[in-house]
Design brief:
Blueprint (H helix, E strand, L loop, with lengths): L9 E4 L10 H11 L4 E4 L12 H6 L7 E4 L2 E4 L11 H17 L6 E4 L14 E6 L3 H4 L6 H11 L2 E4 L14 E2 L6 H5 L10 E5 L8 H10 L4 E5 L9 H8 L1 H4 L4 E3 L8 H6 L3 E4 L3 H4 L5 H8 L4 E4 L3 H4 L7 E3 L2 H11 L5 H11 L3 H12 L18
Parallel strand pairs: 1-2, 1-5, 2-4, 5-6, 6-7, 7-8, 9-10, 9-12, 10-11, 12-13, 13-14
Antiparallel strand pairs: 3-4
Helix pairs in contact: 1-16, 7-14, 12-15
Length: 391
């Protein structure tokens, strides 16, 4: 470890649980450990609703952390709060106060603390070492019911030692700052996994979290237009607790399509290569208005196996990260046409996608991310348009 690296590692105040360990912060954490930097990982908090189902665990994680080792060099703890800080300014202050106390009582000592939820940032003020905000979403677009976001983002812009964003679109969220753009990346294991599955004809796949931005109406129309195609969705349902109607509409696709649409639940990472190799195309059917500002990890997964990518408008065309031969579509008719066209695409297209993915591995991304968070502004990040690169 060199002298400019954090002597006691990196701490993540994460936006998700550790499991499934497939998201940006988990990928970066694993690569940090490979660089000799231990990681402490605080999961997104469980609010007081958990008192109804698991009161003992909620109380146990309200005052201090209970870290457990989940992988060499990585320890993880749950955290409890009264109510989510996005509910109101009062909720934000209460949650941030609880978080600050939680960290103090837990002996929090990483020299680099990484926040990912803007309503938790107020707790960063009392922490030692460098304090960084890693922005993966346009939170106002993703959570229109959140309160106080403009003030929270302005505070981050004023106080953070560095701001990192996954998409150039997000730089404007932080007035007076020039954030470093470090998009998501490719899981190296997908580039080297053996091919053992045979490609199925006229079969589409979606692999990723399923939330309100998954365009159910679009998929229903596409499958109606292509009666000889099937679509399988693999991923975790992450609808908010109050979003019963969107969740039910998603799950209703299977009976509505006579089983040509199937939801298979969370996919073990060791099966991902086979699932992608067995598909004809990989879909990114996001609602465009919600997707703007994303850096879709599934795009890198698809390309690592050479799979044609068909995506709705939103994040791809704004990110500087559009893979070769990607079809960006505006409606069901265009998506259906792109799926049919992908069946007969030239053989060389798959290799170009794999080469694109190989230039954007998590190892390379972590180097750029670590340089940024430690105050060493990285040079050009692969795939980010020069006009958006930090000076």
């Amino acid at each position: 470890m060199n002298a400019s690296s954090p002597s006691t590692g990196v701490g993540f105040l994460a936006k998700d649980p550790w499991n499934p360990a497939i998201r940006r912060e988990q990928m970066i954490a694993r690569h940090l450990v490979q660089r000799g930097l231990p990681v402490r990982f605080v999961q997104a908090p469980a609010d007081a609703r958990r008192l109804r189902t698991d009161p003992g665990n909620w109380w146990a994680h309200l005052r201090r952390a209970r870290f457990q080792t989940v992988a060499p060099g990585i320890t993880v703890t749950e955290r409890s709060t009264v109510q989510p800080g996005l509910r109101s300014p009062a909720a934000e202050r209460l949650d941030a106060g609880l978080l600050a106390s939680f960290l103090r009582r837990s002996g929090w000592d990483p020299q680099l603390s990484v926040f990912m939820l803007p309503w938790e940032w107020r707790a960063a003020r009392a922490l030692p070492g460098r304090r960084v905000f890693d922005c993966t979403d346009d939170w106002a677009r993703l959570l229109p019911h959140a309160r106080g976001l403009p003030d929270q983002l302005r505070r981050i812009a004023d106080e953070a030692d560095e701001v990192v964003v996954v998409n150039p679109v997000l730089t404007d969220l932080f007035p007076g700052r020039t954030p470093v753009v470090v998009p998501n990346g490719t899981d190296e294991t997908l580039l080297t996994a053996r091919r053992t599955a045979e490609r199925r004809e006229r079969h589409a796949v979606y692999v990723g979290s399923v939330a309100e931005r998954f365009d159910v109406d679009l998929i229903r129309a596409v499958l109606a237009a292509l009666p000889d195609w099937t679509l399988t969705v693999h991923g975790q349902l992450v609808f908010p607790g109050s979003a019963h109607a969107p969740r039910d509409r998603f799950l209703a696709l299977e009976p509505e399509t006579g089983g040509r649409f199937r939801y298979e639940g969370l996919l073990p990472r060791n099966r991902l290569a086979d699932v992608l190799d067995g598909a004809t195309v990989g879909l990114v059917p996001d609602v465009a208005g919600i997707a703007l500002g994303q850096s879709s990890m599934k795009t890198y997964d698809y390309c690592a196996r050479g799979l044609p990518v068909i995506a709705t408008a939103g994040h791809l065309e704004h990110s500087g990260e559009t893979p070769p031969h990607t079809a960006v579509v505006a409606n069901a008719q265009e998506m259906a046409a792109a799926m049919v066209a992908a069946v007969d695409e030239p053989v060389g297209c798959a290799k170009e996608r794999i080469d694109w993915a190989a230039e954007r591995t998590w190892s390379r991304r972590t180097d750029a991310w670590l340089d940024a968070t430690l105050g060493r502004r990285p040079g050009r990040v692969t795939g980010v348009h020069p006009a958006t690169d930090p000076p």
